[in-house]
Every structure is written in C-alpha cells, then in structure tokens.
C-alpha cells in the first residue's frame, strides 16, 4: 500500500521532521563534543581552580544556543495553518466521528442483507474521504501524524475491506463497489463495522482526535490559551 501522501508531498517536511526528532533525542555531535571536553580537561587541578566549571558552562551555553537556532529555523519552515483549512478539517472530522459511531452502534442482529447497511457504509466512505482530503491541506505535524495513524487503521483492514467491495486507492481514499458490497456476507460487515474495537470504532477515535486537534490549533492561532485561570487544560 502506498504511504499517506506520495513522496513529493512529504518533500517540504524533511527538514522539519529531522529537526523535530533531533531536538527530541539530542544530537550525536553533542555527545561526541562532551566526550572530547572531558578528555581534554586533564587533571584534578583544573577542577580545583574552577577551569572545569567554566569550560562546562561554556559548552552547555554553546549547545543551548545551537538548539535555539535550530528550533527557530524549524519554526520558520513550517507554515501556519489557515483558519479555513483548520475549520474544514474540524467539520469533516466531526462528521466522520458521528458517522463511524452510528455504524459502530448499529444493531447488526437486525441486518438481514448487505443492502440494509449500504447507505450507512457509503456515508462512512464519503466522510472518510472528506476528512482525509481536508487533512492533506494541513501543515501541523501532530495533526498529520494522527491522520497517518487513521490510514494505518484502514491498511490493517484492507483484506476484509476488499471482501466488502471497498478498496483503498493510491491516494489512500476509499472506493466502494456497490455490486460487490451486496455480495458480501453480513458477518464480514459486522466484523468490520460493529462494536468496540471495530474499524468504525478505531476511525471514530482518530476522527475525534483530529477534531480536537484542529479546534485547539484554531484557538492557538487566534491567540487564545488552551488552559484556564487555574492552569487546567480546557
């Protein structure tokens, strides 16, 4: 299966993601620099006369300055998401959550044939595609990561989806073959869409996360704090 986007889409994120993980786990160059520092300090006399302390402080000051420079560079390379794009994603993700939860909670004991849930599954496919396409216009790494996790859930269920006439396209959107869907067994559809930990349940969770993340980013972009006066996340 293809990645979330094609290779060209990720081209603009290479510097950003490498900086992100570099800042998180630290740089190997810093470790080797610290090793060289210890090996060059020499003996106990340097510790006693304060040379050790001064050298160590200078080293960490330089490392901190390098990290701050890298962070500023990373920030500049990541465009701020527009209100329109974030609002569209919030709306699409909310619709997806509602549709997926409705399908998850459907009483499949009353489903006699695939046609009984065809409209619900078509809505699921349509809302998923809308959410996915809306997320492709977003620059926020954390939001994109959640969207990628959503496509991972689809890819993990691809074989069962195919049995239900649902295919994953090259751009990771979904397509449904209604004739093949009508030939699927009700048990296959129940396994896919009904109850806790079903595909519907997992996609609903990812959609809920995307709705919250886009709403939070809208607040941040508008200059509003995500915490109340008591310091509690709101």
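Sequence proposed for the structure above (234 residues):
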């Amino acid at each position: 299966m293809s990645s979330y986007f094609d290779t060209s889409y990720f081209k603009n994120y290479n510097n950003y993601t490498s900086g992100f993980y570099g800042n998180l786990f630290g740089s190997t160059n810093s470790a080797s620099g610290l090793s060289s520092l210890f090996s060059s300090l020499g003996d106990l006399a340097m510790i006693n006369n304060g040379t050790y302390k001064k050298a160590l402080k200078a080293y960490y000051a330089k490392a901190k300055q390098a990290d701050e420079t890298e962070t500023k560079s990373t920030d500049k390379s990541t465009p701020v998401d527009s209100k329109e794009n974030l609002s569209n994603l919030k709306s699409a993700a909310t619709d997806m959550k509602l549709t997926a939860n409705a399908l998850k909670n459907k009483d499949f004991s009353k489903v006699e044939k695939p046609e009984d849930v065809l409209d619900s599954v078509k809505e699921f496919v349509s809302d998923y595609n809308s959410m996915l396409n809306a997320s492709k216009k977003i620059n926020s790494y954390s939001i994109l990561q959640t969207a990628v996790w959503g496509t991972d859930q689809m890819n993990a269920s691809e074989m069962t989806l195919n049995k239900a006439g649902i295919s994953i396209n090259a751009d990771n959107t979904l397509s449904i073959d209604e004739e093949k869907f009508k030939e699927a067994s009700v048990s296959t559809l129940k396994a896919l869409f009904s109850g806790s930990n079903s595909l519907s349940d997992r996609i609903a969770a990812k959609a809920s996360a995307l709705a919250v993340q886009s709403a939070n980013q809208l607040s941040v972009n508008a200059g509003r704090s995500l915490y109340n006066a008591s310091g509690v996340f709101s």
